[in-house]
Each structure stands twice: as structure tokens, then as C-alpha cells.
């Protein structure tokens, strides 16, 4: 079972669920809008530290690709190639230095930057193949193009932000940049006469570039596309398209290199202007997003505060009303109702306690009325139980009294038959029947005791305690196993003798029942400072510490007799008899593994010996009932 909580805590816990949801929603909205604003503010930083160096690196690699293609066509010398390689290496070092700070922004950016670094490490191998004459024009173009495509992949991933308009325009600018990359590929391939394979690749690149330019210009905002539209509409661009068609047709146009170099430069300048314009547009948008985020966060916070105040006030009111109902119910259940039940058991007239708690909540009033109904039902059940218990006791007494009278008459008749019997076998059978009758009489007396009455059997004069022990042993079935050891000649007061014989007999019978058949049961007696003590010891299987504690508690404080609890019924009788005469009965473990019952008789019930009497010098065994 989980740990219980107070009514106030449960109400607060119930109210915290919607409040927590509102707080979480407020936090999520604030975090999302703030993140969007921060991303827009970082857009310019990412451009400065990552994308702009990447564009510069792309331009230098494109120039190195072009000069390498010239070298393979013998139109450029090693000095020009070496100079361009130095410029490429410088751009590469700048990119790596600036991009190292951007790696910490996200795992995705780190992965893309690492991929670019891996491709840049291939530059030395590509250059070595060119210098050794192991790479042709087409392979050289494709090798450099693979590096550039990796850098453009970095651009596309870095441009991913939550602001859709900014992202869309950034993506279009990147596509235009890739269109410029395709133009420089065309430039490197068609520096002179081309092979059939080169022409097919050239044709494919031209188609991709034209499609990409047309699509990008249709998606680009007007302020960003004006320069590109002017470029596409320029005579130089139209002349370049005618040259492309000539190359596709198998001819080699003049001024191809000069025309494409001028267009590539114009493309690059247009891209840089569009990127700068987009960066300038992102900052005020970020401010607006942040302003809206603060306004929304403030509104949500105000709603949360109002909800908390309202919920706490309602919770306090309900908690006070329920607390008052709880205290009233506890007072009735723990004090007033037990007093009513106790009076009912005594047969007294009672008045039902009322449960009245003022409340402004209908449900709490209903709970109070329901508790009053439950209380009424409990009292009625207690009355019924008291009547039933008294009826059962009355039945027990009547049946037991009748059985007691019949058994008394039967015992007198048996004694008369014993005096007249002459045959030993018949006499032995009569003795057994007499012993059985004695046991039946004790059981009848047990029923009388459980019903709350007294058996009626008593003595007018004190009886030696040794005779009390012998009489008790004679009333059990296995009396042959019982050994009564010698004990002092002290006597027991007459009014207590009958109950004491019954009490000790119950203990002896328990000892014989819960021990093996061939083991002895020892009864001892000795005088103590506070009276006299009997010990009944068996050599059975004993009881666990928990059982000993439970039964000692029952013996010390006799419980209400329950018909459903019939195990060790004799202990109920023992506890009733002990309580009647202020006798203390205790169970403990025996040194032989069984159980020892100690009966401490108060001094007021013990009388001095009437006259000196010689006690037997050895233990005596009971042979039959007297």
C-alpha cells in the first residue's frame, strides 16, 4: 500500500496537474519562440564564421579546377597552378580555423564539417595525380567537383532554421550558387575541343544548370532576384547560352573562357549581395519574434499566476471543510461510537451521536449524511451482535447446565454400579466409563465458563494443592502419561478449588494433545514469594516465539469469545478462569523443546497445611479418576 497523504496534499496534487500542464505549455512556447529568435540572430554569425569562408573556399577550388584543366590542355604553366594551389590552401586553412568554432553548435554541423575536412584532405592526392599525368581532364573535373558538392551539402544543412521564409530564400540562394558551380564545370570541360564523353557530360550539366536557374528565379523574392534577373537577361548571358548550344553541337566557340569567367564573377557578386540582404532581413525578424515571445510568455505567466491563486483558495476552502468533517468523523468513530457500543453490550439505553459539520459544498454535506447513515447501521449491527451474543451464551448455559445435571446423575449411577460389580473386567470398564464421564463434565463446565457463568462445582474447605494437581490430571484422556511430582503440603482455598482443577486440567490436556503419545507430561508445584506456582511441562514440538507472544497476550487479557475461533479452545477457558481469580498464566519454551505452562496462584488463595503430612518420596502417576 502506498504512503497515505493528507486531504490538503491530495487536493493540491489534483490541482497541480492542470497547473503543471500550463507551466509546461508556457515553458515550451517560450522555449520554441526564444529558440527561433536565437537561431535568426545566429544566422549572421553562422554566415560570417562558416558559410562565407565556405563560399570563398568554393571559389578558390573552382579556380584551381580551371587552372588544372588548362594545365592538362597545355594552356597554363606550373607556376600558375602552384600560385592557385597556394590561394586554395590559404582559403582551406581559413575555413578550418573559422569552422572549428561552429562545430560546437550541433552534432549535425559537426558531422558536415568533418565530411568537408575529409574531402579537403583529398586535395593533395588529386594534385599528385595531375602532376604525375595519371588523371585526365574529365577525372580531374569530377574529383574537384566532388569536394565542392560536399561543401554545398554543408551549406544546405546549416541553412536549416525554424523560420520558413528565411530558410526558403536561403535555400534558393544556395541553389543559385550551385548553378554557378555548374557553370564553372562547363567552363573547365569546354576549354577546347571535347571528346564524345565530355560532350555528353557537358550537355547534362547545361540542362541541370538551366533548370536550376529558372526554378530558383521563380522562387526568389523580388528584392533578392533583381540582380540575378538582370544578369540572366544580359547580352553576355545570352551569348554564353549560344556558345553552350554550339559546344553541344560539336563546335568549339571562341571567347568561351572570357565570357564564362565574366559571368561566373557576376554570379558570385550577385550571390554575395543576395546573402547580405537576407542577413539584414533576419535580424529585425529575430527582434519581432523575441518581442512576441516575451508577450506570449507574459500572458501565459499571468494566466498561471491567476490559476494558482484561484486553485489555492479553492483548495484551502475544501481542505478546511474536509478537515472539519474528518475531525468530527474521528471523534464519533474513536470516542462516541465505541462508548455507545460498550453501553449496548451492557444492555444500557443509548442515544446516537450526531455528525453535524457546516459546509458550503453539497458533496461534503452528502458525505456527512452518508457517514451518519453508516453510523446508524453500525449501531444497529452492534445491537444485533449483542443480542446474538447474549442468545448464544444463554443457549450455551442451558445446554451445559442440562448436560452437567445429566452427567452428575450418570456419575452417581456409575459409582453405585462400581460398588456392586464383582467381576474385574466389568469393574475396569466401569472405571473407564466413569473417567469419560468426568471428562464430559469438564467440557460442560467449559461451555458454562465461556457463556460467562460459573460451573457451580466448589469446596467448602481448603484442599491440598497436591490433590488439586492429581484431580486435574485425572480429568484428561491420557492421564497415564501425566506425572505429578511431590510438592509442598500447602492448601488451596475451597471456593477456588473447582476452577483451579478445571484450569490445570485444560493445560494438562493441551500438553498431552500437542506432544507425542509416548512422551511424559510433568506437573510440578512449589511455593513462591507471592503465592504458589504450578508448572505443566510437555516434550512436544513447542511453539514459535510469535505464537508464544500471541497466546500469552490472550491469557493476560482475555478477548471476547469468538465462535469462529475454535483453535486451542481450552486457552479461552483458562484465560477466563485466571481472570476470575486474579491468577497469572504464562507459556514459555521447555528445555526439552516443548512448552511449559506456569500458573501463579496469588497468596490470598493459598492456605497453610492443616497438619504435617508425609509426602511421597517419589513421583506418583495417576491411574484412574476418583
TrEMBL record:
Organism: Nonomuraea wenchangensis
Region (Disordered) location: 607-626
Residue stretches spanning the membrane: 293-312
Domain Histidine kinase, chain residue ranges per copy: 500-605
One GO term describing the cellular component: plasma membrane
Gene Ontology MF terms: protein histidine kinase activity
Enzyme Commission designation: 2.7.13.3
Superkingdom per UniProt: Bacteria
Alphabetical list of SMART domains matching this protein: HATPase_c
Enzyme class: transferase
Stored PANTHER family: SENSOR HISTIDINE KINASE TRCS, SENSOR HISTIDINE KINASE YKOH
Annotated protein name in UniProt: histidine kinase
Coiled-coil residue spans: none
An individual GO BP term: phosphorelay signal transduction system
Pfam families registered for this protein in UniProt: HATPase_c, NIT
Catalyses which reaction(s): ATP + protein L-histidine = ADP + protein N-phospho-L-histidine
Keywords assigned: Kinase, Membrane, Phosphoprotein, Transferase, Transmembrane, Transmembrane helix
Amino acid at each position: 500500500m502506498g504512503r497515505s497523504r493528507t486531504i490538503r496534499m491530495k487536493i493540491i496534487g489534483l490541482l497541480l496537474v492542470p497547473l503543471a500542464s500550463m507551466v509546461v505549455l508556457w515553458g515550451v512556447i517560450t522555449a520554441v519562440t526564444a529558440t527561433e529568435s536565437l537561431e535568426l540572430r545566429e544566422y549572421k554569425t553562422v554566415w560570417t564564421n562558416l558559410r562565407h569562408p565556405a563560399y570563398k573556399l568554393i571559389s578558390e577550388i573552382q579556380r584551381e579546377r580551371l587552372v588544372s584543366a588548362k594545365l592538362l590542355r597545355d594552356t597554363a604553366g606550373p607556376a600558375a597552378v602552384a600560385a592557385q594551389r597556394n590561394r586554395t590552401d590559404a582559403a582551406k586553412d581559413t575555413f578550418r580555423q573559422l569552422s572549428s568554432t561552429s562545430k560546437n553548435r550541433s552534432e549535425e554541423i559537426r558531422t558536415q564539417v568533418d565530411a568537408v575536412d575529409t574531402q579537403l584532405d583529398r586535395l593533395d592526392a588529386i594534385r599528385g595525380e595531375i602532376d604525375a599525368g595519371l588523371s585526365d581532364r574529365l577525372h580531374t573535373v569530377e574529383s574537384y567537383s566532388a569536394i565542392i558538392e560536399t561543401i554545398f551539402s554543408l551549406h544546405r544543412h546549416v541553412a536549416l532554421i525554424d523560420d520558413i521564409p528565411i530558410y526558403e530564400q536561403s535555400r534558393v540562394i544556395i541553389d543559385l550558387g550551385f548553378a554557378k558551380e555548374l557553370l564553372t564545370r562547363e567552363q573547365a570541360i569546354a576549354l577546347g575541343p571535347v571528346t564524345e564523353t565530355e560532350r555528353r557530360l557537358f550537355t547534362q550539366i547545361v540542362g541541370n544548370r538551366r533548370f536550376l536557374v529558372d526554378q530558383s528565379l521563380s522562387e526568389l523574392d523580388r528584392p533578392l532576384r533583381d540582380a540575378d534577373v538582370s544578369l540572366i537577361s544580359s547580352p553576355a548571358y545570352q551569348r554564353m547560352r549560344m556558345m553552350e548550344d554550339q559546344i553541344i553541337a560539336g563546335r568549339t566557340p571562341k571567347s568561351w573562357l572570357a565570357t564564362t569567367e565574366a559571368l561566373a564573377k557576376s554570379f558570385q557578386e550577385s550571390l554575395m549581395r543576395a546573402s547580405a540582404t537576407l542577413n539584414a532581413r533576419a535580424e529585425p525578424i529575430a527582434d519581432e519574434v523575441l518581442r512576441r515571445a516575451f508577450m506570449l510568455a507574459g500572458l501565459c505567466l499571468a494566466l498561471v499566476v491567476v490559476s494558482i491563486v484561484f486553485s489555492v483558495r479553492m483548495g484551502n476552502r475544501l481542505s478546511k471543510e474536509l478537515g472539519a468533517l474528518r475531525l468530527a468523523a474521528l471523534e464519533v468513530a474513536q470516542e462516541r461510537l465505541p462508548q455507545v457500543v460498550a453501553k449496548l453490550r451492557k444492555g444500557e439505553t443509548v442515544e446516537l451521536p450526531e455528525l453535524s459539520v457546516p459546509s458550503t459544498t453539497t458533496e461534503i454535506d452528502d458525505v456527512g449524511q452518508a457517514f451518519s447513515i453508516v453510523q446508524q447501521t453500525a449501531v444497529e449491527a452492534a445491537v444485533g451482535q449483542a443480542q446474538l451474543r447474549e442468545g448464544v451464551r444463554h443457549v450455551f448455559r442451558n445446554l451445559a447446565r442440562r448436560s452437567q445435571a445429566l452427567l452428575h446423575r450418570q456419575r452417581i449411577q456409575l459409582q453405585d454400579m462400581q460398588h456392586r460389580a464383582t467381576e474385574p473386567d466389568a469393574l475396569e470398564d466401569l472405571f473407564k466409563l466413569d473417567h469419560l464421564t468426568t471428562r464430559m463434565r469438564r467440557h460442560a463446565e467449559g461451555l458454562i465458563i465461556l457463556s460467562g457463568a460459573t460451573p457451580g462445582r466448589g469446596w467448602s474447605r481448603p484442599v491440598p494443592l497436591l490433590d488439586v494437581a492429581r484431580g486435574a490430571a485425572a480429568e484428561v484422556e491420557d492421564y497415564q502419561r501425566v506425572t505429578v511430582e511431590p510438592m509442598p503440603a500447602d492448601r488451596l482455598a475451597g471456593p477456588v478449588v473447582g476452577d483451579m482443577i478445571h484450569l490445570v486440567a485444560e493445560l494438562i490436556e493441551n500438553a498431552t494433545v500437542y506432544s507425542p503419545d509416548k512422551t511424559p507430561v510433568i506437573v510440578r508445584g512449589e511455593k513462591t514469594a507471592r503465592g504458589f506456582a504450578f508448572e505443566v511441562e510437555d516434550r512436544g514440538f513447542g511453539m514459535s516465539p510469535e505464537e508464544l507472544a500471541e497466546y500469552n497476550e490472550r491469557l493476560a487479557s482475555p478477548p471476547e469469545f469468538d465462535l469462529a475461533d475454535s483453535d486451542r479452545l481450552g486457552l479461552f477457558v483458562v484465560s477466563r478462569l485466571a481472570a476470575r481469580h486474579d491468577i497469572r498464566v504464562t507459556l514459555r519454551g521447555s528445555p526439552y523443546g516443548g512448552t511449559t505452562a506456569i500458573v501463579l496462584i496469588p497468596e490470598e488463595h493459598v492456605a497453610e497445611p492443616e497438619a504435617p503430612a508425609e509426602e511421597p518420596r517419589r513421583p506418583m502417576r495417576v491411574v484412574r479418576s476418583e
